Amino acid sequence: MIYKNSLDGISSEMLNGFFVDWPNPPNPQTHLKLLKNSSKVIIAIEENSNKVVGFVTAISDGVLSAYIPFLEVLPEYKNKGIGKELVKQMLKELDDIYMVDLCCDDDLVPYYEKFGMIKSNGMLVRNYEMQSGNSNK
Question: What domains lie within the chain, and their CATH numbers?
Answer without folding.
Answer: 2-130 (3.40.630.30)
